[in-house]
Design goal:
By secondary structure, the protein is of the alpha+beta class. About 30% of the residues lie in helices and about 25% in strands.
Length: about 120
């Protein structure tokens, strides 16, 4: 990811090589499907879905992976499929060298929606 400041999610996605941008758009689509009422903004320099005025989920493209932040508080319903992607505190690190686990991303987003609309 570059140090460039972006005004829109589209600008951010368009800054990547075509193959990576396509993966990021697929991630974006899955998050949208789970949170259809969310607004898309740039926050902390990366794409963010905001629901009811609060940041719901961030996603970012990196040289070798895509990151999703945060991880829901309770991911027990997603174990063991989520375990291999957990990295650091509250981060999913999804390698670009493998097929993107789009269904898992959507499930994570659904959990974040549920967690944030209680």
């Amino acid at each position: 990811m570059s140090a460039t400041q972006f005004d829109t999610v589209k600008e951010y996605l368009d800054s990547f090589p075509d193959d990576v941008a396509e993966v990021l758009r697929q991630v974006q689509d899955r998050i949208r499907a789970a949170a259809p009422g969310a607004d898309e903004v740039i926050s902390y320099g990366i794409p963010t879905m905001r629901l009811e005025g609060r940041n719901l989920v961030h996603f970012a493209g990196w040289r070798h992976h895509v990151s999703i932040y945060p991880v829901p508080d309770d991911v027990s319903s997603l174990e063991p499929e989520i375990d291999r992607y957990l990295a650091g505190r509250g981060t999913l690190k999804l390698p670009l060298s493998e097929p993107m686990p789009l269904e898992l991303i959507e499930k994570v987003a659904h959990l974040l929606v549920a967690q944030n609309t209680r």
